[in-house]
Amino acid sequence: MTLRSTALLLILAACDGGGDGTDTSDTGGGATTRTFEYFINTTDVYTGDTTCNGTDMGQVDPAKQVMTSYNGEVHDFQSEDEVPEADIMFWLGDDITAAADSTLKADTSGAFTTEVPTCTPVAYGTFTPADWDQTVDTYEVHQVYGYEEDGVIDGEWINSVSQTTSKLIPGIIGIEWDTTTGIIAGTAYDCFENPIGNAQVYIHDGSGNIPATGEIFYFTDGDNGLPTNHDIASDASVDNGLWVAVNIPVGTWTAEMWGFDGTDYVLLGSTVLNIKAGSVNISNIYTGHDDGIAYPESCLLVQ
Amino acid sequence: MLGALWLALAAAPAHADAPDNWKFTLDGYYRVRGHAFWDLYEGQAAAGTYMTHRIRLQPMLNFEDRAKFMMQVDALDGVVWGDNMSQASTALFAGDPSETTIEGVEGSPVKVRRAWMEFKVPVGLFRVGRQASQWGMGLLANDGNGFDDSFGENKFGSTYDRILFATRPITVATTVANMVNPQAKVRDIPLIAAFGVDRLVEDPLIQYYGYSCDPDETTDNAACGPTDEHSWTDEREAERRPTTWWVDTEDDVYEMVYVLVYRGEDIKFSPKVTGDLTAGFYIVNRVQAETDSNVLIVDGYIKEEIANTYAEAEVLTIQGDTRAITLASESVEDPLGKTANIWGYVLRAGYQDPKWTALMEHGYASGDDQPTDADFTGRPLHPDHNVGLLFYEEIMSRVTAEAWGDGAKGLWSNGGVYNSRYIFPNVRYRPLPNWELSAAYMMAWPDKPDGSKILCAEGDAVDCTVYSATSDYLAYEVDLAVKHRWAEHVNFSVEGGFAHVTDRIPLKSTGMQYETDDEGHTYGDFWTVQSRIAYEF
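Output (structure tokens, whole complex):
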């Protein structure tokens, strides 16, 4: 287990739900009023460089959008062990509600080969048969692979979340995961893809309607990279930007990242993703982007 | 086990018989148990049934009651009837049964569970080896021997690699006093003191690193410094152990055991009233250097049987500090530091005579609503302390296993009383010799709902994210049993139970059968019939 997996273990111990005792909108353990303020309420000023917010994030160079060989591996999200014989789907249009563009199977060491377009958002999913009781359906949307001069993407992993991890998440944070809903886990990033501290996430249907279920949890001890519990004072991610949303209903949702600048709450970025029942969805939010898609430098037109 | 020790100590020292006066005895049983469950899992179409074996052999080599060697060997323990490993390629043609357990994996056809020696010295008795441990009602240390439960059976059993010395200090003193002055006739007091050492771990296979930091990140934690990349623990293959694996003492886990028990029999409380009284303490100090673990377990027990009254109680607490549990808290300075504050108890009292036994039992196991904070407060009672057939034994066992998953097996209930308090009145009636009818009712309430294994309800004195439950209690259960013994050695029972489980338990998310009421709250009704037939010898 590496330190990266230690950081990922944060997911297992994601903490500090919006409905805990420090949340003033929580009426003392009873029914809660699920408003914007229920989710966005910290008065800790966010950290990170967000000067790019509201500015032109650059144009993608169409010449860099080419089909490229992709030699990848499927790894467990938490342990980083290879996941052998996992089924893999790629959606080259970045839409997991559409038919998959490619369906393949990892070999016994978790390796696979396919083709994906560079500098184009794509989505993938990893699966193992339910009878194996090994993994949960894992999706990651808005993946953008940088342009490769040699025409080959080598050594990049795609993730698979184990049943063990998916059970530990709600177990540790103290919530029942209804598997007719989904989980979203991601990181809040600033303009330079460094984690934002004290960011909070708000999920709605694109028109401001909050899902009937779903709680947001954060990781609160970014300095030491260790997981914590859910009974802490802060209601926002601290330095690591990590967040997880549990029991998000099936459907398409917008996840917005907000920060408090000392006076007002500021919308820093957002992403849009579709949730399927019983799935874990890995999705980051980037400052200045409203679609969760961040293009690598290698994809952008040189100004 | 301490009861057995008492008997051994009470026995008169053997006189000089023939030099090789060996006796060999063989105790044990062969048991078959059948299980049937209705609507246990979501989507279960019909009653699920299975049957299991167990052979338990307990040979003893006894030299004049002065030196004994004993073993306990289990065979086919928990093995499910039939060929469940496709030893026959076509199931319909199966004929040779496999050793598959209910977990769906191959079991060990024969296992030497325990082997120990026991010998007397002039002032006491030593017991050395891999041995059973039993104290009081078995809430903490439960040997799992025999068929001592009203409902269900023992499945686990506490076993320790232990050196134990037991003595009757007052007996020794009175013996000396009476030898010095035979006229004094100093009275003995049946007080037993025992001291033992358990070696629990010589070298854990999973390496412990404790707090570690990313060398690429800055941190103000004093414990951090340049280090190899690793987490708190690292799984290791047994083959990767160096030859010096046993040398490191920092990772050893051991415990000191102290016992003091008074066991008075046929005590005259008045000219017409005699009875038995047992009372004592079982104290354990468990330590591990590398995790800074120093835990004190205190377990008190008292039992009286006077006239037709019967009462016993056991109270245990686990206190101390540790950094061994890698569910870290929010503390930046000491994320792995945990302080244990665990409590459990059972009180049982009632009436008994040759035909009737009527008991009221009440028990408690403290829970932990936040397993990742610095307070470690939850621990189930020993799983061989059975309370009914269904709720704790089957439902909570499965719910905690499913909710925690394989990543936290140490937090499963395994059928023990879990994060709750309960009442368990039960009645036994013996209408004829060798026949017994039993009936019991169980009702359980939550201690500290954690939101994932026991759901939170409005008004709970815990801090939950979601308060989705509405019920005050966890479940109620009704159990019935008929037990019969014939041919002196054949032990037969039929037991049945019904449990109603409320919306406090996450049945839906853990794959259990559930119904939904008009308000959308889930509940479950569960049935079981189980039967045992055993040949005891």
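Chain B is about 5% helix and 45% strand.
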